[in-house]
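Data card: per-record layout.
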Amino acid sequence: MKACDLIARSLHQRGVKVVFGLIGGMIAFMVESLAQYRKTSFITFHHEQAAAFAADAYGRMTGKPAVVMATSGPGATNLITGIGSCYFDSSPAVFITGQISSKELKSKRPVRQLGFQETDIVTIVRSLTKSAKMVNDPNNCAGALADAFDLAVSGRPGPVLLDIPIDVQKREVTGKAVGKTFHPVRLNGDIPKFVNRFIKALSKAKRPLILAGGGVRASGGHDMFLKFLKNSGLPVVHSLLGVDTLSSLHPQRMGMIGSYGNRYANLAIKEADLLLVLGSRLDIRQTGTQVDAFREHKKIFHVDVQKAELNNRIKSCDVCSCDLKAFLSTINGSVALPLLHIQGWRARLADLMAMYPDELEQPSLKSGINPNAFIRALSKASPGACGYAVDVGQHQMWAAQSIWLYKDQRFITSGGMGAMGFALPAAIGMAFASPRQPVVVIVGDGAFQLNIQELETIKRYNLPLKIVVMNNHSLGMVRQFQDEIPNMGHQGTVEGYSVPDLVRIAKAYGIPAKGITRRAQAPSAIKWLWQEALKPAFLQVDIDIRLNANPKIQFRRSIHQMEPKVPEGWHGKRIFRV
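The structure for this 578-residue chain is written out next.
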């Protein structure tokens, strides 16, 4: 048996049903082995970056490592943004790159390149992976692959890369290929003592709050988290990557915090006297620049599997570096009854939500489409979707603020990397993770054009993607930033930027498509989008170029000081339709 055949069999034994990638000479033998073995399908994309984004979403949906293959040189380097996305957003993935023949590697020669398309991808991605190495011995392939899968899900999940020269792939495997057993490290700190300190502080707190981050899902502890909420009755705000920790109907869900968070959620952070942070790294997009204002008047308990994230930007927290599942298991045995003494606090939070509805953050429009209201209407009409793939830009913030999630629906977006072009290929990964379940794509016109070629992939596999392009004919998030700088123009965002007829392009790929420009057209367009639930469809939604992602934390101000400022008597008075 050749090493490439052994790799195909090893992937099947690991339960891998699909491998994402784009064919190239240095992976041709591995792809052929997959085809001959007929147990794992090779899903062809039109750009390696797209395959990597699909793997990111697949890993987050399943909790299992997705697999990507790419050829040497440009094939490998095209993966980098997707590898970084997996790394920053804690998505388990195994990347397998083909390398040129071992004899053609420059090794220590003082030349830039010896073989055609030779690129030292291992060194390039080492800072963006949990491990990156070249496999030089065919008898080590199975063991290296097994270790890669284990490492990808150990501790904080993330990507692992194996670079395999083509001559190694073609060699016969001698003897039994057994790799060393990987023993994942479990950092469980002193959880009981930490839990006791938290419960003692909780018994005295008048305004306790939980901040749920992406780690709740990434840890595999989501069910335990729901049990903890039921036991404690504590209200919850969430980060961008924690949007889908709770459904919109959950009575303890209090919105998203951060730079573009819901106004009421940021006010909740401001007023809280105790904060339990679960699986969130408290980055600048969550806290704003004024970290002292974020933590003032409150005791913060912080749980994270990565020790370096604790007491990093926000100091003087009571911390526990541990597996979040282990923490939740322990505390679920300690908190038995709802906290009746915080009913007044929960009523205050409900009042804040009623006072500052996100649909009213946009100015009144005569007939134009309010993006927050549209996304709320779209998502309420999409209970059959397994989730949402959301790109990067103003539409990302509108969606995170206003999305209506039903039970078990997912919200997958690019957080740490913030990579435009993410949503379309990510939705493909979601579709393969949840076969025969529709996925809604929410993307801006700029982001859509970065990986527009994957419309052909969607059509070829007849994937049930409902693609919604929020088209404001600009790169709106940067345009909004430009507007905040005195005397700065719109170079690159409006001037020097254009959008083709996206409806015609979608139709050219064989995908049913239509566009709307007025508020009155929205209900029928949403209904049309779902006429054939298990087939792809494309909807372009025109958005006024002047609309911003509101509200936003004011520069160098506290988390609750958001713009635009709320006029006196504004609270909850207007009723806004789509």
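Known properties of this structure: The chain has three domains: 3-170, 191-355, 363-549. Residues 177-183, 574-578 have pLDDT under 50 and may be disordered.

See the next section for split statistics.
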